Amino acid sequence: MKPHNNFLYNLLKGAMFGTTKNNLFTNMKNTFLILLGSLFLIACTANTLDEIDEANKATNIDEYNVANIINRLSQNYRNKTEGLKNKQTLQALINEVEAEAMQDAGFLQLLTAAYTTPQAVSIDAIVTNSDLVLNNLNISATAKNYVNDLLSAQTIPHLNTLAQAIIHDTQLTTTEKTMLLEAADLQKQNILGNGNGGDDDKDWDKKKIVGYIQGATQSKANAVLNTVIINVIEKEN
Questions:
Q1: Is residue 91 within a helix (H) or strand (E), and if so which, with residue range?
Q2: Angle at the Cα of 188 (from 182 to 191), degrees rounded to 5?
Q3: For residue 47, what pLDDT is reported?
């Protein structure tokens, strides 16, 4: 047995080999309890380390890949419709984008029973007045403040600082934390993609993030599709 385990070894030895035979049963029982306690401590330590590891992973907004799915779906739709000039209603466009998304394995993994086809009236509201939509969302005031903080962030370190704050904010629900961290990833893509983009770019970025949050109150698939649809509308304008 290794030196650093001498304490446990002596403890077990003392428990197993008492001074009298009459104490053997009692000593064996004590040994069992000591071993059980040791295993419990090891299990607790392992669980704690797992929790810390998961928390550490969550602090890195790169872990969230919804931005990749959104970018892929947006590009796939543009590739499919490039050169086409057909006029259609907003709902028809939504249905086309949805049909394309249903061919994507990554999007299919996001589908749950809570998903429904986005409606033109909801998308139009986001495009027309994203501030009003955000104010009316059924999320906490704290979550809404974080959305605005994310939108104002212009550097990756600032986003990472916000991500840490979101993770440790006890006023947020788990659902709110998840949607906000994913929105942080979208804002990261905006920063990296826009560089010194103009106000018009930032306005569309805001619509997409509000669209994501609005959809996320229903399902992650709705959040992703909302953002793709707004991406498509932006490119067509």
A1: helix 90-101
A2: 150
A3: 45
